[in-house]
Structure formats: C-alpha cells, structure tokens
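Recap quiz, item 2
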Amino acid sequence: MFKIVAEPLRHEPLVEAVSAPGVGGVVTFAGNVRLYSRGKRVSYLDYEAYPEMAEKYLRQIGDEIRKRWDIDRVAIVHRIGHLEIGETSVIIAVGSPHRKEAFEACHYAIDRLKEIVPIWKKEVWEDGEVWIGLEPDSYDRAAPGDSPFSASEAAR
Amino acid sequence: MRVTVRLFAAYREMVGASRVEVDMPEGAPVGAVLADLVQRYPQLRAPAEATKFAVNQEYVDPSVPLRDGDEVVLLPPVSGGR
C-alpha cells in the first residue's frame, strides 16, 4: 500500500495490510505536526505533492526494503493538504517475521522518504510562512563554477 | 519543441502557475528549462542551484536531453526534519 491521500490518516488499514500469519512483528511510525519549529509557534502546515511521482517513489522505498531485509510487507501513506497541529502527515507500517528487521526497515523508510519523495511542506505561523527546504539559510549550495547558475552568485 | 513544465509548492507560488510552457530546441538539456524560467522569473534564481529535475516522473541529471512529449518538473528542494 503506497498512497498519497487528502484525508485524515488511520493506522488500522496499514497494520492490516502488513499483517499475515508469517509476520511476528509489526512496527509503525506516525509523523505528526509539531507545535514549535525552529523557535517559532506553528499555526498549521500545508503539504503538497507531485502525486504520480510521489507514489512511484514510495513504492521504490518498498522495493529497496525488500532487497535489503527481504521484507515485502510495507505500507506508506502520506497525507497532503492543510494539517493542524497534532495531526498525522504520514504513517508507515512494516511487518516481518522478527522485530529487529521491522524496526530497522521502518526507520529506513522514513529517512528515505524525506530524501527522495517529492512532497513539500509549508510552515505557516502567525506572522509569516516558509516552504521547508527554502528557508533563507538552508540552500544546498553547489561550489562556485559547478553549475550553470553560479553566475547568479556573482550577480548578488 | 514546446515543453510543458509542471510546478509545485514554492516554485508554483513564485511563478504563479502550476503549468508553464517553454520553447526549447529538440534535444536541449532539461537544465536549460530552469535557466529559461530563471530569466523570466528572477525569484527562482536564489533556490535554482538546489533544484532537482524530473522527466517522466524520474529524477534526471540536468544534462539529460529533452524529447517532444516529455513531462518535465522542476522540483524545489525538500527537507528532512529530524
């Protein structure tokens, strides 16, 4: 189960999807909207996805987990749209015969999701907003001369 | 070759549209699409170096040549949380 949805998330369908007679351990992760971020009090978050590519890369995470841990019971559902404090933006469930691999694979899944899945979140607070990843002090800068855009550095 | 570029999140807001059209010679590298849009929308200049490129829903290097009918997306940087 690898989905992007726009409604509130529930654990039960994911737990059901990864449960089976051979599964001795089910590990779940829930990512929730936190009240404070980078010293600011958050009003709400807006999540946006490139939906077709996001689902494709959620599925790719499942493939990577299968290759690395021989686990094929993985479910990842990410919610998009307006989320209030405390709401759940993502649930991951992993089922495997033994718990060690389930914990490892679930941890891997959320780290990997943050790296490769095209989902963005906008943090909105009382007096402003920012898309996470584009905070003014956070650009991943290439070395000068590495890219065709290094002229933009010289221009500033 | 007319290329339709889909935009999301911060780039969608900066350009004011979720789709924009760009004229490119056949075989132009996908990076040239970003260069073109940076000229037209200077707000894209600051995050440009952190942009990733997707053609037909796969990540590609900016040097990859475009073909007629490709779906191109300029992806703003994502960020991890901890």
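Chain A touches chain B at residues 31, 48-50, 52-53, 56, 111, 114-120, 122, 131-135, 138-142, 147-150, 152, 155 (CB under 8 Å).
The mean pLDDT of chain A is 90.
End of item.
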